[in-house]
Design brief:
The complex is a heterodimer of chains A (about 650) and B (about 200). Chain A contains 19 helices and 2 strands. Chain A is mostly helical. Chain A folds into 2 domains: about 70 residues, no CATH class; about 475 residues, Up-down Bundle (Cytochrome C Oxidase, Chain A). Chain A has a two-stranded antiparallel sheet with strand order 1-2. The radius of gyration of chain A is 25 Å and the shape is globular. Chain B is elongated. The chains are: A mainly alpha (about 650), B mainly alpha (about 200). Chains A and B meet through helix 8, helix 9 and helix 10 of A and helix 1, helix 2 and helix 5 of B.
């Protein structure tokens, strides 16, 4: 049994050590794109089949909405079958053993790999790409808004770009931290070798590219201009791109639900020996709590969009003004979409607390209260949805209760703030990029939280509703809370995932740059909103020109900062110095194995014996690796590189391994 | 899978493959995962039920085909019993009983679908989807029918595999999962039938 010593943070960082085995030649990728290609071919065949079938039965043209729906479903099935579903699931349905992609080369990132670490990276890279595309849409919007009047895009196109920006960013915020780091980190933190359902995990990821293609392909059918909220009745009568939006988002709901169920089952059934609920790392708690929300309420967004689709295609009249009511859409939609903001930020809370305690070199303040706060947010978040509808004309008696419940949610959120500040208090702060990002997060989310109270209050909300105040508020919470946490997590786990260290100077520069530019962009919008500037319109009165010109200029600086981020990530992943297994001297299980972790996460069984964050507590141990039972048959240990690395990590020695 | 020249991060593929084969934790995970999926589905159905009550309250037209609805309801409820018998039979390694019970379940599921299809054609004449009640009716029946069809496909796969002798008392998760899902489809109808026909 080896003990983990808790050494104080070293200001130089430890980037020198790692194993010498890197010199081994990496296996060459053989036809790495064949799975994706097969998927694309089968998707095209599926689309054609769907079109032919639908036209044969009902007639019409290939751009009719019912035809598009049938074609989309067929194409989706074709795509999933092509990328590896035939081998992973289809074979089992005819009684054969399923096969999965075990390609050891980099080609595994383009196949139906069931390794949760591969899937986490797949999510991360896909969603960062979507983030950048959504960011480009935002740049176009800000250029259009730089001056009053109609400029680079006309007003209808502006609405379409707003909608596209909104839904792409919502997708990134919902799936970003949970998809990338929830998949990568949670199984390792609980001491598991993989997720509970590895094949379903892969299936969930491979449902994501059709979502992106569906949304980005919607302009072919006239795009969608109803906002990411897709409010009926506009979404019932607008152009056919809305149908692709609906199908893509229903698919995205499936991604969310399957991923969430996987995380819940993994955390419940696969925790290592001794890893009680009270010893669970806080990020795992956050992912678990989020999943509790995601796997239930997500159905409501899908449900709302199914109703819209029925109204468009079957001719039902849920939202038709004469017989139905568009309030129904808003109730069902917000029953998902308010909890969705907590699906976005609770993983962010987890990330920020996780790295705060690591870089403050102190135990996490009020661990149990934080867990209670997570679960409290999960519970409260499903009973506050109607605060989005104070001006929608719902029954008056609903206003008061929803206002009070909404404001009650600031209690658990406040606990999380207190925990972070209590952890930082008198800590030996080790300023590395993740902590700098965390400070940015703290500032942003504080502003986001405080401005939220004005929107929860009916009196002020009636004035501020649908103004840029709302826009600035939710960007402070979603970008400040979820995207900043995604970026902080990217830096924090970068050495673990790639085995290399990012450039610290560029990282810190980026963290400061993005925080300052973000605040410069959105602070003026509070002012514009308070003075009545309407959101979702590409034009505005001259009175708001100054604030908007300033915001647009700052937004371009904000957008440019991401080039630095992408450069730092890409260059460091290839050329960065070796990071070693535990550059942060952190204690949770993922830092006790090599970087990057081997396919089989734990060669020796991890046994958890203590709390995860007792930094600075004499003689405290979170986990050790059990040596194989001598009575049991000997395990093949001759080439156990990773076992050695694990021991090295445990010993925390600064000696050269080679 | 080739093992020569394996790099650091894949040198334990063999161990990892073995771990994937060792499914000692899997039964518990499977059952939990299926239950979570069913809870998730409950939320979808509840969204649609809420929509029905929100738009039309408890109104319903007089010209519903009550007799046919009652008949298909009885058929579906009985099919759950035979599905349960199939699951129990395979747990006791009674393959013949399993095949017969599952066949009866499949047959009843198809009768139910036939009845529902007939009913939908009739309903389209009396209360088309454009009417408020028609909207809820077609939506709920359609959603449920979709689940019945997927359940039937799952049962059909299990049936074909069962005929080929794939399942046994130690290998019955496929049967258990499909049957649990079928029970859920049945349970959903227990809520939808009174919502549309009785209230």
């Amino acid at each position: 049994m080896t003990m983990l010593e808790d050494s104080p943070a070293q200001s130089t960082g430890s980037t020198a050590q790692d194993s010498s085995t890197e010199t081994k030649p990496r296996p060459k990728a053989r036809r790495p794109f064949r799975w994706v290609l097969r998927g694309v071919v089968l998707a095209i065949i599926g689309w054609a089949t769907g079109v032919a079938l639908a036209i044969a039965i009902r007639g019409g043209s290939p751009t009719d909405e019912i035809v598009v729906i049938v074609a989309y479903v067929f194409a989706l099935i074709g795509w999933l079958a092509g990328v590896g579903g035939i081998e992973a699931f289809g074979r089992q349905w005819i009684g054969k053993k399923p096969q999965v992609n075990t390609d050891p080369s980099w080609g595994r990132y383009f196949g139906f790999s069931i390794d949760h670490k591969v899937i986490g990276i797949q999510y991360g890279v896909t969603l960062i790409a979507v983030l950048l595309i959504g960011g480009l849409a935002a740049m176009i919007m800000r250029i259009e808004l730089a001056s009053p009047g109609v400029g680079v895009v006309d007003l209808d196109d502006f609405n379409k770009i707003v909608s596209m920006h909104g839904i792409l960013m919502v997708a990134v915020a919902v799936a970003g931290v949970l998809g990338a780091f929830g998949n990568y980190v949670v199984p390792i933190q609980v001491g598991a070798q993989d997720m509970a359902f590895p094949r379903i995990n892969a299936l969930a990821f491979w449902l994501l590219p059709p979502v992106a293609v569906g949304l980005l392909g919607a302009p072919l059918l006239g795009s969608f201009n109803a906002g990411w909220t897709a409010y009926a009745p506009l979404s019932v009568v607008n152009e056919s791109g809305q149908i692709l939006f609906n199908m893509a988002i229903i698919t995205f709901g499936l991604v969310s639900i399957l991923g969430a169920i996987n995380i819940i089952v993994t955390v419940i059934t696969m925790r290592a020996k001794g890893l009680t609920w009270g010893r669970l790392p806080i990020f795992t708690w956050a992912a678990f709590s989020t999943s509790l929300l995601a796997f239930t309420v997500t159905q409501f967004f899908a449900g709302a969009l199914v109703l819209v689709t029925m109204d468009r295609v079957v001719g039902t009249s849920f939202f038709a003004p004469e017989v139905g009511t568009s309030l129904l859409y808003q109730h069902i939609f917000w029953f998902y979409s308010h909890p969705a903001v907590y699906i976005m930020v609770i993983p962010g809370f987890g990330v920020i607390l996780e790295l705060t305690t690591t870089f403050a070199r102190k135990p996490l303040f009020a661990y149990k209260a934080v867990v209670a706060a997570f679960l409290g947010i999960v519970g409260l978040s499903v009973v506050v949805w109607a605060h989005h509808m104070f001006t929608s004309g719902m029954a008056d008696f609903l206003h008061g209760p929803f206002m009070i419940l909404t404001e009650a949610i600031s209690i658990p959120t406040g606990i999380i703030f207190l925990s972070m500040i209590g952890t930082l208090w008198q800590g030996a702060l080790w300023f590395r990029t993740p902590l700098v990002m965390a400070f940015g997060w703290l500032f942003n989310f504080l502003i986001g939280g405080i401005t939220g109270i004005f929107l929860a209050d009916i009196a002020t909300d009636i004035h501020l509703h649908d103004t840029y105040f709302v826009v600035a508020h939710f960007h402070y919470t979603i970008v400040g809370g979820a995207i900043f946490a995604l970026l902080a997590a990217s830096f924090y786990w970068f050495p673990k995932i790639t085995g290399r260290m990012y450039n610290e100077k560029l990282g810190t520069l980026f963290a400061i740059w993005v925080t300052v530019a973000f605040n410069l962009t959105f602070i003026p919008l509070f002012w514009a909103g308070m003075n009545g500037m309407n959101r979702r319109i590409g034009d505005y009165p001259d009175a708001y020109a100054g604030a908007n010109r300033f915001a647009s200029f700052a937004a371009l600086i904000l957008g440019a900062s991401f080039l630095l981020f992408v450069w730092n990530m890409l260059y460091s992943a290839i050329r960065g110095p070796k990071a070693g297994p535990n550059p942060w001297n952190a204690r949770t299980l993922e830092w006790l194995i090599s970087s990057p972790p081997p396919t089989h996460n734990f060669v020796k069984e991890p046994v958890v014996v203590g709390a995860p964050y007792d930094y600075g507590v004499e003689g405290s141990v979170h986990a050790y690796f059990k040596d194989p039972d001598p009575a049991a048959p000997p395990e093949p240990t001759t080439e156990d590189v990773s076992a050695e690395v694990q021991d090295e990590a445990l010993a925390e020695s600064q000696e050269e391994v080679s | 899978m080739t093992t020569e020249a394996a790099p650091l991060d894949t040198s334990h593929d063999a161990t990892h493959e073995e771990w994937h084969q060792d499914t000692s934790f899997q039964p518990r995970a499977n059952v939990l995962g299926l239950w979570l999926f069913i809870i998730s589905e409950v939320f979808l159905f509840s969204a649609f039920l809420a929509a029905r009550f929100y738009t039309t309250g408890t109104d319903r037209p007089d010209d519903l085909n009550q007799n046919l609805a009652l008949a298909v309801t009885i058929v579906l409820l009985i099919s759950s019993v035979s599905a349960y018998l199939a699951e129990t039979s395979i747990k006791f390694n009674n393959r013949r009983g399993f095949i017969i019970s599952l066949g009866i379940t499949l047959l009843m599921g198809m009768i139910f679908m036939g009845g529902v299809t007939f009913e939908l054609r009739e309903a389209a004449l009396h209360f088309p989807p454009e009417t408020p009640y028609g909207s809820s009716y077609f939506m709920l029946i359609g959603l449920h029918a979709f689940h019945v069809v997927t359940g039937l496909i799952a049962l059909l796969i299990v049936f074909v595999l069962g005929v080929r002798g794939f399942f046994g008392s130690t290998n019955s998760w496929g049967v258990e999962g499909a049957v649990k899902y079928w029970h859920f489809v049945d349970l959903a109808w227990v809520f939808i039938y009174p919502t549309l026909y009785l209230l």
